[in-house]
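Fold this sequence, please.
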Amino acid sequence: MDIETIMAKARVPQQGRSKASFERMLTTAEELMTQRGSDEFTLNEVAKHGKVSIGSIYCRFDSKEDLVHVVQLRVLERVDTDMLEAIAAAQARGGGLIDVVHDLVQSVAEVLRRYADRMRPLMLRASGDPVIAAIGKRSYVRTSEAVIDALLTCADEIRHGDPRHAADAGFRILYASIARYLGFGSSLDAAGEGDWNELKSDLSDMLAAYLSTRPKARPLPA
């Protein structure tokens, strides 16, 4: 399902009073998910806490799932805006490969941590909701492409024969490690393990070492 279809299903109002009510629905649903760490809330709770009628919610959304999808879009648009700005700023500051890697790791990690409480319940839901999964993948790809492009400004220092492949592999490892620490997806049991600043430092050192080391030659297939 594309973004336009998701927004069309929300039946976004055009008039001022209705738009204010619609905003309260979305804000309240986001707050309930953030507080509870899951999507375990009802539309009646959204109506009560958001001071809107249950009828007005069903006037805008056919189901709770449609409401959650729009909430996720809003959250990830904020994440993407902050993330791409942070990555662009790190790229603009420049420096050698080690400096750029440390700057990028810091930037990506801190934006994800800032939004972790809002992203966590959505990522937990993603395994059973293909729409949530697709929206999340779209956001991930945006970050991935921006980080890879920033790393490739130091391509002459990357020792791998395929610098883009190396940058992509490095980012996937980086993101997975941060996601595990923050309790995204199925890794709630590992959330918060270790020291946050040490994790960022270790990931920066490992990524810089990986990119600046020529890989071992792989044996030819039999």
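The mean pLDDT is 90. Residues 64-93 form the longest helix (30 residues).
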